[in-house]
TrEMBL record:
<keyword id="KW-0539">Nucleus</keyword>
<keyword id="KW-0498">Mitosis</keyword>
<keyword id="KW-0132">Cell division</keyword>
<keyword id="KW-0131">Cell cycle</keyword>
<dbReference type="GO" id="GO:0007094">
    <property type="term" value="P:mitotic spindle assembly checkpoint signaling"/>
</dbReference>
<dbReference type="InterPro" id="IPR045091">
    <property type="entry name" value="Mad2-like"/>
</dbReference>
<protein>
    <recommendedName>
        <fullName>Mitotic spindle checkpoint protein MAD2</fullName>
    </recommendedName>
</protein>
<dbReference type="InterPro" id="IPR003511">
    <property type="entry name" value="HORMA_dom"/>
</dbReference>
<comment type="similarity">
    <text>Belongs to the MAD2 family.</text>
</comment>
<dbReference type="GO" id="GO:0005654">
    <property type="term" value="C:nucleoplasm"/>
</dbReference>
<dbReference type="GO" id="GO:0005737">
    <property type="term" value="C:cytoplasm"/>
</dbReference>
<feature type="domain" description="HORMA">
    <location>
        <begin position="14"/>
        <end position="197"/>
    </location>
</feature>
<dbReference type="GO" id="GO:0051301">
    <property type="term" value="P:cell division"/>
</dbReference>
<comment type="function">
    <text>Required for the execution of the mitotic checkpoint which monitors the process of kinetochore-spindle attachment and delays the onset of anaphase when this process is not complete. It inhibits the activity of the anaphase promoting complex by sequestering CDC20 until all chromosomes are aligned at the metaphase plate.</text>
</comment>
<dbReference type="InterPro" id="IPR036570">
    <property type="entry name" value="HORMA_dom_sf"/>
</dbReference>
<dbReference type="Pfam" id="PF02301">
    <property type="entry name" value="HORMA"/>
</dbReference>
<dbReference type="GO" id="GO:0000776">
    <property type="term" value="C:kinetochore"/>
</dbReference>
Length: 206
């Protein structure tokens, strides 16, 4: 008689923090590539989430993003991270042109009691794929960034959270009267990530 083996995908707090922080790393790379913040030749093609993805090869940016995802993972595991915002600014004037906002909802019962949740890896991957596809297609509606740009990352944490000395207090780098586009969200059952991009509208477009 044939037997059937069923496998449950158990998601732990540490596992969820790793999934979400890794997602931020790939999403940041995708935004920097698709928005032309760095030249095309600075990126190398890899496969992730069942999609062709691009990773920056500049050592300074790689190191920045690696330290960032490691710190985000720590805060996610402690249930202290509320949102992460990738900001694109005009290099010369410092004017904020885009804010890629990743809001985070955390299941506090998991943080406080150490319980786990169930959700299939495939389902999580499908949800992440949908966001990555939307980031790639954002060039169809976002204004063209014609001048050289730089980026920064803001992390919104609980007030009682310990912050490494490499991070500094910052203003929220807001955009006056921005246009906003809500993207898909993904949920590990422990952390839910809601994605939104807001951008400056060119006067000529109004």
């Amino acid at each position: 008689m044939a037997s059937k083996t069923a496998v449950k995908d158990i998601i732990t707090l540490r596992g969820s923090a790793a999934i979400v922080s890794e997602f931020f790393g790939y999403a940041a790379n995708s935004i920097l590539y698709n928005r032309g913040v760095y030249p095309v030749e600075s990126f190398e093609r890899v496969k992730k989430y069942g999609l062709p993805m691009l990773l920056i090869q500049d050592e300074g940016v790689k190191s920045f993003l690696s330290n960032l995802t490691s710190q985000l993972s720590e805060w996610l595991e402690a249930g202290k991270l509320q949102r992460v915002v990738l900001v694109i600014m005009n290099k010369e004037s410092g004017e904020v042109l885009e804010r890629w906002n990743f809001g985070i909802e955390t299941d506090n019962e998991v943080v406080e009691k150490g319980v786990s949740r169930e959700k299939s890896d495939k389902e999580i991957m499908r949800e992440i794929q949908a966001i990555m596809r939307q980031i790639a297609s954002s060039i169809t509606y976002l204004p063209c960034l014609e001048d050289p740009c730089v980026f920064d990352v803001l992390a919104y944490t609980d007030t009682d959270c310990s912050v490494p000395f490499t991070w500094i207090e910052s203003d929220p780098k807001l955009i006056a009267n921005p246009q906003m586009v809500k993207l898909h969200s993904f949920d590990t059952k422990i952390h839910k990530v809601n994605t939104l991009v807001s951008y400056k509208v060119d006067e000529w477009d109004e």
